[in-house]
């Protein structure tokens, strides 16, 4: 499953967005077009962290990264690739 498909699934199954998955536009606003409220964003953050095994830093949890599905996918992919603050640590314990 692609990152985009996973985000869409989380929005429907965990955040309870009522827009059908196949009608979700990656560039539509989560708040304005999908009706995600502040509690929904908190749940979305938790679900993204659990699902992708990442930590979303407070400074990164903003409209630039979380206003659309496309923004979220870009952010998650950057974190998974180690290009963002919340990237999983690759350091080994010695």
TrEMBL record:
This is Acyl carrier protein. The modification O-(pantetheine 4'-phosphoryl)serine is found at residue 38. 4'-phosphopantetheine is transferred from CoA to a specific serine of apo-ACP by AcpS. This modification is essential for activity because fatty acids are bound in thioester linkage to the sulfhydryl of the prosthetic group. Pathway: Lipid metabolism; fatty acid biosynthesis. It comes from Actinophytocola oryzae. GO terms for cellular component: cytoplasm. One of its GO terms (molecular function) is acyl carrier activity. Belongs to the acyl carrier protein (ACP) family. Pfam families: PP-binding. Residues 1-80 form the Carrier domain. It comes from the Bacteria. InterPro entries: ACP (IPR003231), ACP-like_sf (IPR036736), PP-bd_ACP (IPR009081), Ppantetheine_attach_site (IPR006162). It is found in: Cytoplasm. Keywords: Cytoplasm, Fatty acid biosynthesis, Fatty acid metabolism, Lipid biosynthesis, Lipid metabolism, Phosphopantetheine, Phosphoprotein. Carrier of the growing fatty acid chain in fatty acid biosynthesis. Its main location: cytoplasm.
